[in-house]
């Protein structure tokens, strides 16, 4: 089916991109308030300890020192920093400040001073005495009943939460299988590494009204959490999101906002608090470390018949998103198996606290699953692409463990697009195999949701008409760099038949914009996009009503971008002017809210080409091709940018990224960008991305999600390529632990 | 406090700076040029890149006092330089900008590269830009933008 769009499914540079090239986009650290001072958090250097004394005498001598916030001065309540809406899985165990630190980087006290330098010096001068306790870091230690429970009020062991999701009879499934393969897989915790540091400015200086500027993905959840912690109603908490320098899930937790707000109240000054890169590395949250045991059964004809996964996530000492991240993985198995058993566990340790991260539990299990499926194909002597397609869930069918049918799926088209490009590359460059080098391709599939799979996504939009035919579009959804404001403006322009320049979007300010659950779960296009679409239709209805009243008729309708009635035709701009200035006119505002009715799955196929150097046991990733079915791409330019960025994060995950614990100091070693390797320019292989022709009936103009999906298949595709090239078994990431990883930079042709 | 003179974005300016003060702190806190970003404060991410006498430096690792008598160009002042707008436009059109936090540093590093080499190969770009970290784009569109800008510069210079 061919659909003609004017404003969507077209490339548009981000609305704010010029401001970003001129240094005019304002991020939190670029803002300042009159009388603003600085705050710094004093953190535990130990992963498990008890504070035995705090001495401020040296800090008090520092010029500019304003005061400190102590653990006994904060409300004696547990909370969860997660930016998800409340749920029984979002258990509460975190304190604003603590005297019993449970991970390195836990907040002990906070100090305020006139300048940043004075605040840092004051923080360094605070003397905290600790009684050091023995930390546990490893998943197996969490299952050891001899270790004391870290959150005793939630669980009497360090197994915080377990969830089983089943379909059919797993024992029977394996009994009928001709081939059963089993293995264990490991992935380490990794950092989001947004370039912008965690930042907030809190003004609670009057003790009555709290205003926060912060790099938040979930401003309305931040408002809810701060309202509870500060003991004031939500209408007196205003959270404003300035330009945000990347999120990837990192900003789906509140970090220092509660302590900064309460310290602002105490010293009666607005305070700015910016993390150091070291704080960013281990005092925020990371992607969960995971151990996955997979058992897979198949018939000789290539039909998958049973899949079992024991999936254990290490959430660190605090719940944050742990149980939901684990449970989200249960319903991402995109192959038909009659007998399915997901056995999930979320455990507590004194490792770095884990939270939401692009992929949300999907990334870790997809690695294990896609590597195992490759092995099944090898054992059966069949092509792994054919095996995947043969077993893939189709439209009208459902994922194992779920009852929701798939509503759109163009996975075969994704394969075709990747295959076409692979052939072109092979025709041009060949696949080298000699005594020294072997090159090979690997593949992987992935799926995700559009919005949280729990269907808790909720958003709203307000469209205010101006007399010149331009509009103000108000949404609560947070653009964190992915380009959602441009995408939403395109949906509004398409619906109203106006130009993109006629849309002014005002977003993510709890004092101005309507509620939005938050920027997470790849929900902006599908959830907020649907809200914008409905609000624009509501505006058109309002304009029709006004025109009917003005012209004393009931004949007006909006068709093909024109209001047509018995008395004639009016363009959008003419109608706006008429409605505003006619004596029978009025102010027209459209509004709508959208609660997720479905969570359509986008799909992705990734091919990776690796080169193995036999003498040095070295690998080089040469090429990654990724094709996606995301429904209609509202802005193909930004969708492609999302895919490429997702590939780069997948390359880092596969090759080099990990948060390591120093065995001697018993705290994270990966405290800066020299000890934590993220891909640089030269680490990135050639990337080709393709968007399949697809249409999702539930989505705005046929759109599904893209953000998280695209990073999920990258690491398993790379691993499958390296397996074939090297002939080595691979069960853990990153590959730099097993191979020498070479930069992807190649000789010029 | 020491008095220093800098030609900042083409204008001679005097500042008082502390001994330990970084050029980044001087630019952000005293000159209020916030286009210069702080990503790590230890020379590992490149977000604070400025041009010092035409060469890119990490201003977080450069003492303000060392800049005395030198020319400093930040993203805010880049438009006064030849081809700067063309480079910025290439970044916009190629979709090389996502969150934008690395963008000022990327654009300045690209400008410096193109001043030295108006026909950079992939590896020249990768080498020149190695100190600038981006977590959003995967670098591919930044590479394309630089090649696109280079082609336009060569065209303007009559080399194509």
Explained architecture:
- The complex is a heterodimer of chains A (749) and B (160).
- Chain A is of the alpha+beta class and 749 residues long.
- Chain A is built from 17 helices and 28 strands.
- In chain A, strands 3-4-1-11-8-9-10 form a 7-stranded mixed sheet, with helices on both faces. Chain A has a 5-stranded mixed sheet with strand order 6-14-13-12-7.
- In chain A, strand 20 and strand 21 form a beta hairpin.
- In chain A, helix 13 runs parallel beside helix 14.
- The model of chain A has no long low-confidence stretch (mean pLDDT 97).
- Chain B has a 5-stranded mixed sheet, with helices on both faces.
- Chain B is of the alpha+beta class.
- In chain B, 58% of the residues are buried.
- Chain B is 35% helix and 16% strand.
- The chains are: A alpha+beta (749), B alpha+beta (160).
- Chains A and B meet through helix 1 and helix 16 of A and helix 2, helix 3, helix 4 and helix 5 of B.
Q: What is the number of helices of chain A?
A: 17
N-to-C CA distance of chain A: 41 Å
From the alpha carbons, calculate the radius of gyration of chain A and give it in angstroms: 27 Å
* Biggest beta-sheet profile of chain B: 5 strands, mixed
Greatest interface and its participating residue counts: A-B, 60 and 52 residues
Mean pLDDT of chain A: 97
Distance between the termini of chain B: 52 Å
Number of H- or I-type helical stretches of chain B: 5
What's the number of extended β-strand segments of chain B?
Answer: 5
Morphology call of chain B: globular
Broad shape of chain A = globular
Measured on Cα atoms, how large is the radius of gyration of chain B? 16 Å
Poorly predicted runs of chain A are: none
Helical coverage of chain A, percent range: 25-40%
Largest sheet of chain A: 7 strands, mixed
Strand content of chain A: 15-25%
Q: Which percent range describes the beta-strand content of chain B?
A: 15-25%
User: What's the mean pLDDT score of chain B?
Assistant: 96
Oligomeric state as shown: heterodimer
Broad structural category of chain B: alpha+beta
SSE topology string of chain B: EEHEEEHHHH
């Amino acid at each position: 089916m061919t659909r003609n769009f004017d404003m969507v499914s077209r490339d548009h540079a981000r609305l704010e991109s010029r401001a970003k090239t001129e240094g005019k986009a304002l991020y939190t650290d670029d803002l300042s308030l009159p009388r603003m001072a600085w705050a710094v958090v004093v953190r535990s250097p130990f992963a498990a300890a008890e504070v035995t004394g705090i001495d401020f005498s040296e800090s008090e001598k520092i010029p500019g020192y304003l005061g400190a916030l102590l653990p006994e001065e904060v409300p004696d309540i547990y909370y969860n920093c997660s930016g998800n809406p409340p749920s029984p899985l979002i258990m509460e165990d975190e304190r604003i400040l603590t005297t019993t630190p449970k991970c390195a980087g836990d907040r002990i006290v906070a100090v305020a001073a006139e300048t940043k330098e004075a605040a840092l010096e004051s923080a360094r001068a605070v003397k905290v005495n600790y009684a050091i306790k023995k930390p546990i870091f490893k998943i197996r230690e969490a299952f050891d009943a001899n270790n004391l429970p870290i959150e005793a009020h939630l669980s009497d062991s360090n197994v915080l939460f377990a969830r089983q999701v089943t379909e059919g009879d797993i024992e029977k499934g394996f009994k009928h299988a001709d081939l059963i393969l089993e293995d264990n897989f490991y992935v380490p915790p990794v950092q989001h590494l947004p370039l912008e540091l965690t930042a907030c400015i809190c003004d609670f200086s009057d003790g009555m009204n709290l205003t926060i500027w912060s790099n938040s993905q979930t401003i309305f959840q931040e408002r809810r959490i701060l309202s509870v912690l500060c003991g004031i109603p939500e209408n007196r908490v205003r959270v404003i999101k300035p330009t945000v320098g990347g999120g990837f899930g990192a900003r789906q937790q509140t970090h220092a906002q509660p302590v900064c707000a309460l310290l602002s109240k105490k010293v009666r000054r607005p305070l700015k608090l910016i993390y150091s890169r070291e704080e960013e590395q281990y005092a925020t949250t990371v992607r969960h470390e995971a151990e996955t045991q997979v058992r897979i059964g198949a018939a000789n004809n290539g039909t998958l018949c049973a899949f079992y996964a024991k999936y254990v996530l290490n959430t660190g000492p605090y719940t944050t998103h742990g149980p939901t991240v684990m449970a989200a993985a249960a319903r991402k198995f995109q192959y038909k198996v009659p007998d399915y058993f997901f056995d999930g566990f979320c455990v507590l340790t004194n490792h770095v606290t884990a939270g939401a991260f692009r992929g949300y539990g999907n990334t870790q299990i997809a690695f294990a699953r896609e590597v195992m499926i490759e092995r099944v194909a090898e054992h059966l002597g069949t092509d792994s692409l054919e095996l995947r397609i043969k077993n893939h869930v189709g439209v009208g069918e459902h994922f194992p463990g779920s009852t929701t049918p798939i509503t759109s799926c163009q996975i075969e088209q994704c394969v075709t697009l990747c295959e076409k490009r692979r052939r072109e590359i092979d025709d041009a460059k060949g696949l080298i195999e000699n005594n020294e080098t072997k090159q090979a391709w690997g593949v992987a599939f992935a799926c995700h949701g559009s919005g949280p799979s729990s269907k808790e996504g909720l958003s709203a939009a307000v469209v205010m008409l101006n007399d010149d035919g331009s509009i103000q579009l108000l949404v609560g959804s947070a653009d964190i760099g992915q380009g959602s404001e441009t995408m939403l403006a395109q949906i509004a322009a398409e619906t109203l038949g106006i130009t993109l320049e006629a849309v002014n979007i005002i977003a993510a300010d709890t004092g101005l914009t309507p509620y939005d659950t938050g920027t997470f779960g790849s929900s902006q296009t599908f959830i907020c996009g649907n809200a914008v679409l409905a609000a624009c239709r509501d505006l058109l209805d309002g304009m029709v009503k006004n025109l009917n009243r003005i012209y004393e008729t009931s004949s007006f309708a909006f068709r093909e971008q024109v209001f047509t009635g018995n008395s004639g035709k009016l363009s959008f701009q003419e109608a706006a002017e008429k409605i505003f200035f006619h004596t029978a006119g009025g102010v027209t505002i459209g509004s709508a809210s959208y609660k997720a009715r479905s969570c359509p799955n986008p799909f992705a196929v990734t091919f990776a080409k690796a080169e193995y150097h036999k003498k040095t046991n070295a690998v080089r990733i040469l090429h990654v091709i990724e094709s996606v079915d995301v429904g209609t791409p509202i802005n193909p330019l930004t969708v492609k940018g999302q895919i490429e960025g997702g590939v780069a994060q997948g390359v880092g995950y596969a090759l080099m990224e990990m948060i390591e614990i120093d065995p001697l100091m018993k705290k994270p070693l990966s405290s800066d960008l020299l000890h934590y390797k993220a891909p640089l320019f030269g680490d990135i292989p050639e990337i080709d991305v393709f968007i399949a022709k697809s249409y999702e009936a539930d989505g705005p103009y046929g759109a599904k999600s893209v953000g998280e999906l695209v990073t999920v298949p990258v690491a398993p595709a790379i691993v499958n390529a390296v397996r074939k090239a090297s002939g080595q078994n691979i069960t853990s990431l990153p590959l730099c632990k097993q191979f020498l990883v070479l930069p992807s930079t190649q000789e010029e042709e | 406090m020491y008095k220093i003179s800098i030609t900042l974005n083409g204008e001679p300016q005097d500042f008082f700076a502390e001994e330990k003060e970084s050029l980044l702190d001087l630019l952000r806190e005293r000159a209020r040029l916030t286009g210069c970003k702080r990503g790590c404060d230890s020379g590992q991410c490149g977000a604070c890149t400025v041009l010092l006498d035409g060469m890119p430096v990490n201003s977080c690792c450069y003492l303000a006092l060392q800049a005395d008598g030198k020319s400093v160009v930040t993203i805010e002042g880049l438009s006064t330089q030849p081809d700067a707008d063309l480079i910025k436009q290439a970044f916009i059109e190629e979709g090389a900008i996502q969150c934008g936090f690395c963008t000022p540093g990327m654009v300045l590093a690209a400008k410096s590269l193109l001043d030295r080499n108006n026909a950079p190969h992939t590896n020249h770009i990768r080498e020149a830009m190695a100190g600038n970290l981006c977590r959003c784009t995967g670098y591919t569109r930044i590479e394309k933008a630089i090649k696109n800008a280079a082609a336009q510069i060569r065209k303007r210079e009559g080399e194509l």
